[in-house]
């Protein structure tokens, strides 16, 4: 197969460094295993020598074991060092990758910004302002003709609407004023009876406009009006007493 | 049920005709099929990469029924595997056979997936690390035959997915992936 054109990943110095660190790590791990085996062997030898009552030899074996253990501790430290450096390299290459992508992003932004110059933008804005002004002028010319004819009509419609709205809003006035009158009545807790009576009269006065709305016709409806009238009065009079 | 280590042997392993090459074509095809599967399953579970034809191999004889495979039969079954790409002769004399329960291409894909799953794109690993390191522990790669691993990596190298390179130490090479 034509592999000449296949792009192989390039080996950098960093890769070589990682390789040698990883190899070192493996070798140290192997060395540790070897040391552990030796330590175990010395321990066993010491045990056997103690059984055979050869104290001197046993002590020597234990001393050897001790030195091997010291060595093992050192190897542990090296191993951690190697691991640390591997992690540092990895972190540094990640940082570089992040930096590269940020740089690429900023370059791209610059390239896009270079495509539009500030003068062009200014010119564009001026052009559109001009176009807008032109449009407004044209509107004014066309608008003049229209407003001259329709001015009166518009005013007439406005007045119509205004009166309509005022008429609509009128009936709502008494309905709002009644509760407000009751509230003002409640706020002073102890009131002279004369004042409350005056207020009652006020209420009566306020109630009065309702009556003429119904046409005065002598019929059952009128009879009802009369019958309902007096009780209302007594109700109104009774209300302030408990307060 | 007979067992070989932690491997559960199939029922037919105690069936004496299983160890004799069958003369009838259809039965032999069935027999070859069963042997192929058994060999692959066993090697995969025990991580055995090389079978020596002349050597003792647990599957080639069954002491319980006092049967063992003839040399011819061994060659027939292994040849059947070789024709499917699931094995390879390692020498001209056909005495050693490399078992490929994953074909070379499947191994290559397996490694690529491993690389992707572990975020090793653009990463560097050593050959030994792939065989015995903590990273591959528990995967199919753990304990892989070194020669086989190198061949699979060269296959990846041809496709531009990896580069094998020498380090300062002579006994271990590095491989850089670029997936």
TrEMBL record, chain B:
Q: GO molecular-function annotation terms?
A: protein homodimerization activity; structural molecule activity
Q: Does the keyword RNA-binding apply?
A: no
User: Per its UniProt record, what InterPro entries does this chain match?
Assistant: ESCRT-II_cplx_Vps25-sub, ESCRT-II_cplx_Vps25-sub_N, WH-like_DNA-bd_sf, WH_DNA-bd_sf
Q: What family is this?
A: Belongs to the VPS25 family.
- State the UniProt keywords alphabetically: Protein transport, Transport
Q: Which GO terms describe its biological process?
A: macroautophagy; protein transport to vacuole involved in ubiquitin-dependent protein catabolic process via the multivesicular body sorting pathway
- Top-rank taxon of the source lineage equals Eukaryota
Q: Quick one: a GO cellular component term?
A: ESCRT II complex
Q: Which organism is it from?
A: Musa troglodytarum (fe'i banana)
Specify the protein name.
Answer: ESCRT-II complex subunit VPS25
């Amino acid at each position: 197969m034509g592999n000449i054109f296949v792009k192989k990943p390039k080996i950098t110095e960093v890769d070589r460094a990682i390789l040698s660190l990883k190899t070192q790590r493996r070798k140290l791990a192997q060395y540790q295993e070897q040391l552990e085996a030796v330590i175990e062997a010395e321990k066993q030898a010491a045990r056997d020598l103690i059984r055979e009552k050869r104290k001197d030899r046993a002590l020597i074996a234990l001393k050897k074991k001790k030195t091997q253990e010291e060595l093992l501790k050192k190897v542990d430290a090296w191993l951690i060092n190697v691991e640390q450096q591997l992690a540092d390299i990895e972190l540094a290459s990640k940082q570089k990758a992040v930096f590269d992508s940020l740089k690429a992003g900023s370059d791209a932004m610059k390239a896009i910004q270079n495509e539009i110059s500030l003068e062009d933008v200014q010119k564009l804005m001026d052009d559109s302002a001009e176009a807008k002004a032109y449009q407004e002028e044209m509107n004014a010319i066309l608008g003049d003709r229209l407003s001259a004819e329709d001015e009166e009509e518009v005013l007439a419609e406005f007045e119509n609407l205004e009166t309509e709205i005022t008429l609509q809003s009128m009936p709502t006035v008494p309905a709002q004023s009644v509760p407000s009158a009751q509230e003002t009545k409640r706020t002073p807790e102890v009131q002279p009876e004369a004042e409350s009576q005056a207020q009652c009269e006020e209420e009566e006065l306020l109630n009065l406009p309702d009556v003429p709305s119904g046409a005065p016709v002598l019929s059952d409806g009128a009879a009802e009006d009369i019958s309902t009238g007096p009780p209302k009065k007594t109700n109104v009079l009774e209300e302030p007493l408990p307060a | 049920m007979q067992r070989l280590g932690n491997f559960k042997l199939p029922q037919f392993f105690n069936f004496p005709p299983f160890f004799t090459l069958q003369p009838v074509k259809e039965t032999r095809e069935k027999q070859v099929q069963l042997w192929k599967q058994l060999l692959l399953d066993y090697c995969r579970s025990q991580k055995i990469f090389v079978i020596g034809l002349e050597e003792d191999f647990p599957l080639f004889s069954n002491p319980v029924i006092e049967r063992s495979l003839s040399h011819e039969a061994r060659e027939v079954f292994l040849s059947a595997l070789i024709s499917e790409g699931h094995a390879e002769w390692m020498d001209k004399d056909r005495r050693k056979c490399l078992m490929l329960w994953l074909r070379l291409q499947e191994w290559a894909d397996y490694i690529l997936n491993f690389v992707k799953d572990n975020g090793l794109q653009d990463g560097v690993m050593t050959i030994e690390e792939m065989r015995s390191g903590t990273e591959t522990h528990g995967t199919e790669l753990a304990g892989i035959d070194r020669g086989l691993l190198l061949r699979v990596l060269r296959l990846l190298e041809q496709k531009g997915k990896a580069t094998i390179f020498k380090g300062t130490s002579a006994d271990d090479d590095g491989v850089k992936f670029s997936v």
